[in-house]
Each structure stands twice: as structure tokens, then as C-alpha cells.
Design brief:
This protein has 2 domains: about 190 residues, Class I glutamine amidotransferase (GATase) domain (Rossmann fold, 3-Layer(aba) Sandwich), CATH 3.40.50.880; about 110 residues, Arc Repressor Mutant, subunit A. Strand 6, helix 3 and strand 7 form a beta-alpha-beta unit. The longest helix has 19 residues. By secondary structure, it is α/β, with parallel strands linked by helices. It has a 7-stranded mixed beta sheet with strand order 5-2-1-6-7-9-8, sandwiched between helices. A two-stranded antiparallel sheet has the order 3-4. The protein starts with a helix and ends with a helix. The chain is globular.
């Protein structure tokens, strides 16, 4: 490699935490490999890293050999996490990330990785995103933070991504930022990635697809239910919001969802409670408050009726 080409090499580390998503990792690293091949030289030095240098198992069970995270200079480091990121942090990990930030590295998080960045204090005052499954955990643990439901967000020396296949879109943007749009298109075409999404594209399918409903009033009410979990709206309040009578709202729910207003709303709140039980350190009483139940006992009764086990058993 020529001296000029050598100066072009960027070192990009991927700090893998147990249970990381293999799909997210591949979607982030493969475009960099393709960029090296298409350029005919090493543009990116990609490193799989772990805190102790041992291989890390992904959520699928496949393991990736890793080098130990040390003080070697990195241009960028991405924290790749999945599963329950609230259990993966440690003072040593947070200190290492803060040190990398002070040394000038660009700090990123993929899928549940932004939760680790938030816990390290590296997202304060930043625009960021996280996989939608972990958004509730971040909001509950760090109320001053407000993740966006975007595929990825570039905010100066912070890069966050929702995971899944969204890193393909993120890497297209990063390669374009450095090598130009034409070269980035060649990289994306290498993986048949012809429909590159905008950063602000949604992480999830539309409400109509998720709920299997097309009626505009019902969709509007369902989306409002999702947004108003901690303080559920009474049926009369929701009817006013939707611009219909309570009786008409009941008819719409019966016709399009084959269920009553209260039953549907309760399922939304209990699904949210389940995510918090699985992914947050909040107590059961705190989760009851966060999902609009009057007490831990009230949550436990409703939870057991729907899922067949208590919140305590769910968490254990």
C-alpha cells in the first residue's frame, strides 16, 4: 500500500456485547469490506472487539472472534448490543467509552448499543435513536433523554442506529460522507441494496400494517393509545379526540378489532409492561405506575390474566 493510501485507512471498532444481533453486525461491517474491495485498497480497518478479548456469542448463538479493547487509536467505535442492554453495562465499559470519546473517537451505538452510551453519559444533549424495542427502557431510565424513532441519526461525533438492516442505510451515508455518493452507491449495489432509506424513515411498519386495520379513526385512536400509556385516556376523552361519540367509537372497535376499547387499551399497556420487565431495572411498582395501573397488585392481576404468569415470574 502506498503512503498516501495508508493515510486513508480509518480504524473502526465494533465492541460486541453478549447477545448482540448478528444481522445488525453484518449489516454494519459488510459495506466496509465491500468498500475496501471496490477501492482496491484498505479504506477501513474493521476490528471486532470485546472487553476481555474473548469471542462473543450473538443472539443466534454464533460467536465472533474478538480482540481486546485497549488503548489502540480508533477513528470510530460502535457498541453493538441486543437482548437486554440494561444488564450489559459496567463501570469499566463506561469509563472505556468516555476515554475513547476524550481521545477524539467518534462514538456509535447499534440496536441496543445507544442504551449503553446513555448509561455512560455520552448522549446527554444529543440527537439519537435506538431500536424501538429499547426506547421505553431508555425513557424510563433516563427521563432527560428523548430518542427519535429514526433508522439512524448522525449528530457530530455521535452515531446511533436502530439495528436490523438499518446499518446498511447508515453505512451508505458514512461511506458517502467520506468517499462521495457515487462510490457509496457502488457499495450499496454490491449487496443489491437499491432502496437506500433516509435517516428519518420509520423503524416499524405503518400502523395499518401492524394492526391490520385501515379505518382512519380506529388507526388514529390506536396510535394515540400507544402514545398515552402512563396516563391512559378515558373512553370519553378518546371519543372527543377522535371526533366521534362514545357509542360510535365502541361500534368501530367491535367492527374492526372484534374487541372493546378497554380490552385493547389494556393489552397495549400490558405489552409495554412486559418490555419494561424484560429490559429495564425498574421495580414492579414503578412499572405499574409507568403503564397506568393503580398499584403493583393491579398490574399483577391483569398481567397474569393475559400472559398466564405474574410480573415477578416474567422477570425471573
Amino acid at each position: 500500500m502506498s503512503e498516501q493510501a495508508g493515510r486513508l485507512v480509518q480504524s473502526i471498532g465494533f465492541l460486541l456485547l453478549p447477545g448482540f444481533s448478528l444481522m445488525s453486525y453484518a449489516s454494519a461491517t459488510e459495506p466496509l469490506r465491500a468498500a475496501n474491495l471496490l477501492a482496491g485498497q484498505s479504506l477501513y480497518d474493521v476490528r471486532a472487539l470485546s472487553m476481555d478479548g474473548k469471542p462473543v456469542a450473538s443472539s443466534s448463538g454464533a460467536t465472533v472472534p474478538c480482540k481486546r479493547l485497549d488503548h489502540s487509536p480508533l477513528n470510530t467505535i460502535f457498541v453493538c448490543a441486543g437482548g437486554n442492554p440494561t444488564t450489559l453495562g459496567s463501570p469499566a465499559l463506561y469509563a472505556a467509552l468516555r476515554q475513547l470519546s476524550r481521545s477524539g473517537a467518534r462514538i456509535g451505538g447499534i440496536s441496543g448499543g445507544p442504551y449503553i452510551l446513555a448509561a455512560a453519559g455520552l448522549l446527554d444533549g444529543r440527537d439519537f435513536t435506538v431500536h424501538w424495542e429499547h426506547a421505553a427502557s431508555i425513557v424510563e431510565a433516563f427521563p432527560h433523554l428523548n430518542p427519535r424513532q429514526a433508522r439512524f441519526v448522525l449528530d457530530g461525533n455521535r452515531i446511533t442506529c436502530g439495528g436490523g438492516v438499518a446499518p446498511l442505510d447508515m453505512m451508505h451515508a458514512l461511506v458517502s460522507e467520506r468517499m462521495g455518493a457515487d462510490f457509496a452507491r457502488r457499495v450499496s449495489d454490491w449487496y443489491l441494496h437499491t432502496a437506500v432509506a433516509e435517516p428519518t424513515a420509520p423503524q416499524r411498519a405503518s400502523a395499518a400494517e401492524r394492526f391490520g386495520v385501515n379505518h382512519p379513526i380506529v388507526l388514529n385512536v390506536l396510535e394515540k393509545m400507544e402514545a398515552a400509556i402512563e396516563r391512559p385516556l378515558e373512553r370519553s376523552q378518546m371519543a372527543i379526540y377522535a371526533g366521534v361519540s362514545k357509542r360510535h367509537l365502541d361500534r368501530l372497535f367491535s367492527e374492526h378489532l372484534n374487541a372493546g376499547y378497554s380490552d385493547v387499551y389494556r393489552k397495549f399497556r400490558l405489552a409495554h409492561a412486559r418490555r419494561l420487565l424484560q429490559q429495564s431495572p425498574l421495580s414492579i411498582s414503578e412499572i405499574a405506575f409507568a403503564t397506568g395501573f393503580s398499584s403493583a397488585a393491579h398490574l399483577s392481576r391483569s398481567y397474569s390474566a393475559l400472559f398466564g404468569k405474574s410480573p415477578k415470574k416474567e422477570r425471573s
